[in-house]
């Protein structure tokens, strides 16, 4: 039995003719078409529905005498259709203009399945079968809002040949490897692609070629190694190999510069309660936004703990909350933490928490904890392999995680995440300051900090210290609760997808 798929359709023509075709698709004349409903009030010519198997077969799209094709021609309509049947990894795209089928595109490797249902071995098989030999990391990098999605088309309605899915990591890896092999085999280090036929022979469709032309036009990563033209289509230079190696990974080849994320250090806040409110709001945002325990199945960070004067140790931030990393490594972070971006030039390589603590006797204890974001593939693999890693001896575990922390090929830049955090900080700090000013309650910040550090102060003790009534306390509770809610946002995706938002502003 064929699987149910979905389609979206755009129709050009008179209102009467459009409505006649829509009513026909909603009738019993097409038993394999399940509905043709308006897509949205702001797009009166857009419709969507479901089909059995494929839209192609459901309406006999190749038969000019079929009911669908003849009706479109008779009514003088132009119709563009995208269809997807997930169970068969199939997508389709057609344009019919009057009595002519002007665009006919199909992709049998359009993968779309939940990542939570897959093991590493299954992902390897998917990479081999549907990814046409792509790596595991590329397949996992196609993570999008709970699913792995690659192949298929961008569903843009312009009545022209479609682009392949934008920023598809599987396609990018395949195409870049094809170019790199060409450079290596050229003998001169210069490789050219003359026309579309060369790409077709290499196994790339017109839609995929168009997407890669768009990718090279919009990307700065290959400005010096790949040139796009008309004759030849593509010219590649010897530096391409180095650019591919660096693509999507942070630069760790020089000392990193620390750029503060906090407006001022906790050491400079002094007795100014407003400064302390701002600092607390900043820290709550940063900790929430880089905490993968709230995110998804692929986010993870390699962590280095460097107490000044001691050898560094290493950890993973995956399933546990942010506070666990500090607590498990016996870091006294509650007395004051400052956050900074670790940067190589303009690229963000990680996040550094400088923890100001103190030993008995007033001796300062400073510990730097740096978080580097793993690639989606490395993060997912670490999650799957966490039990084995945790069973290693302390020495072996530390060595393995240290290698992971220093391996640029297993890391991704955090530029978009840092940008999101900065905007999140601004919103939350403005909210915290306005709420603090609104409260006008003596000791608001002192109470909030003490409540976070230790056992909650009892009612009598609270009233003795601050001298506030029940109304004041209700306002304080609202402030602390809303501040927490405002800080707990999901972050944007550094993948060349999301979604992040997901790729997502998340």
Largest sheet: 6 strands, antiparallel
Strand order of the largest sheet: 2-3-1-4-5-6
Strand content: 15-25%
> What is the arithmetic mean of pLDDT?
83
Distance from first to last alpha carbon: 37 Å
Alpha carbon gyration radius: 28 Å
Uncertain residue ranges: 440-456, 471-506
> Count of DSSP E strands?
18
Q: What level of helicity do the residues show?
A: 25-40%
Number of helices: 18
Structural class: alpha+beta
How is this structure best summarized?
With 506 residues, the chain is α+β, with helices and mostly antiparallel strands.
Structure description:
The structure is a single chain. This protein has 18 helices and 18 strands. It is α+β, with helices and mostly antiparallel strands and 506 residues long. Among the domains are: 162-247; 284-410, no CATH class; 415-503, no CATH class. α10 crosses α18. The model is unreliable at 440-456 and 471-506 (pLDDT under 50).
Topology:
Layout: E1 4-12, H1 15-25, E2 33-40, E3 43-52, H2 55-58, H3 67-74, E4 78-85, E5 90-97, E6 100-107, E7 111-114, H4 120-129, H5 136-141, E8 143-144, E9 147-150, H6 169-185, E10 191-193, H7 196-201, H8 206-218, E11 226-228, E12 234-236, H9 240-246, E13 257-260, H10 273-289, E14 301-307, E15 313-317, H11 322-328, E16 337-344, E17 347-359, E18 363-373, H12 376-384, H13 386-391, H14 394-406, H15 415-439, H16 444-453, H17 459-466, H18 470-487
Antiparallel strand pairs: 1-3, 1-4, 2-3, 4-5, 5-6, 7-9, 8-9, 10-12, 11-12, 13-16, 14-15, 14-18, 16-17, 17-18
Helix pairs in contact: 10-15, 10-18, 15-18
